[in-house]
Structure formats: C-alpha cells, structure tokens
Amino acid sequence: MHRTIIACSVAIATAAAFPALAQSTQGHAVSQPGVVGMAQTIHVMATIKAIDKSTREVTLVGPEGREVTVTAGPEVKNFAQLKSGDRVDVQYAEALTVELKKGGGKAVGVTEKAVGATAKPGTAPGAAVGRQVTVTGDVIDLDPATQHVTVKGAKRTVNLKVRDPEQFKLISKGDQLEATYTEAVAVDVSPAK
C-alpha cells in the first residue's frame, strides 16, 4: 500500500530540517528588466527510525546517517499507519520573485493564499499544501550613490540594496515593487520492505 501525507506542520518542521538531510538541491535564478527571481527545490529521502505516538514526533534518518526529529500536527491524516522503517520522500520547493510595477497604482499591502486538498473518503490517504505571500510597496526614495531603494509597505518601510546597476536604473519614485514568495511541500511515505 502506498501512502501519501502532505501537511503544513510537517512541511514547516521538515523544511527546517532539510539542511541536515538534503540529498539534492537545485537552484535557479532569473534576471530580466524589471524582474528578478530565485527558486530552489530540495529532495530528501529518509527512513523513519522512531515514532513517539504520544507527542507525534517522528525521527528521520537521512542517507548519510543524519537524524532529524519532526512533529506531525493533528492535521496529518493516517499518522497511526506510520511505522519504523517506512521510507519518506520529501520534495520541497520555494521561489521568490520581485517585480517592478512602473507608475504604481496597486494597493499597498500583504496578501496570503494557502491551498490544500485532502483525499476523498475511500481513496488513498493524502493531501496537498502550498502557500503564496505577496507584498506590494511604494518606492519613496532612491539613493544612486549606494544603489538603495526605500520602499514603504503597509506596516513598515525598508531600505533595499539593488546589486544590479541596470535594474536600479529602471526604478523611479512612485513605482512599486511587488515581491511574491511561494512554497510547496510533498511528503510521500512508502511502507518498509
């Protein structure tokens, strides 16, 4: 029987543990006029070494023998089916893009979208989790000598260093910067052989 478990609490706990277990990481960067972005995917294969059912803690062992303990929140379905020796395949992806909005006009603020779905009754257990946060702010000042841009958001003002001189030249007072952060995680559990 093949079991899929994807849940936000496991995603957050496991994401924090990735440096200890990471098998492969791929990163990509993009830069074009008015848009910069970075993305990375992390793939981890681990084995369940121990399960504490009272605290819902699961100890995972990576391919190099490194151990990490994560806590499965109450939204993790079929927790009772997990067993020592089960194989865990984790795919984690995150991306950040920053886009210049010439002339502004968008509402300043933060929006967050979370998506998730669970398996229907009678089907294989599973769910999907993803999150996207978008922050929009007004460009209120520019310092060409240091290539810093001052951006005023809904709750705070930040001073950002623009490392690419060509990108800096495109920005003017009154423009907006829109940053979008996206993350998603999939945890696939297969029974021990």
Structure description:
10% of the residues lie in helices and 55% in strands. The model is unreliable at 1-16 and 122-126 (pLDDT under 50). It is mainly β and 193 residues long. The protein has 2 helices and 11 strands. The chain has one domain. The chain is elongated, with a radius of gyration of 21 Å.
- First and last CA, distance: 11 Å
Average pLDDT metric = 83
Task: Indicate the multimeric state.
Answer: single chain
Domain module count: 1
Helix content: 10-25%
Question: What keywords describe this structure?
Answer:
disordered N terminus; mainly beta; 55% strand; 11-stranded antiparallel β-sheet; 193 residues
Draw up the topology in text.
Elements: E1 3-4, H1 8-21, E2 24-32, E3 35-52, E4 57-61, E5 67-71, E6 87-101, E7 109-118, E8 127-143, E9 148-152, E10 157-161, H2 165-170, E11 176-190
Antiparallel strand pairs: 1-11, 2-3, 3-4, 3-6, 4-5, 6-11, 7-8, 8-9, 8-11, 9-10
Describe what is shown at a glance.
This protein has 193 residues and is mostly beta strands. It has helices at 8-21, 165-170, and strands at residues 3-4, 24-32, 35-52, 57-61, 67-71, 87-101, 109-118, 127-143, 148-152, 157-161, 176-190.
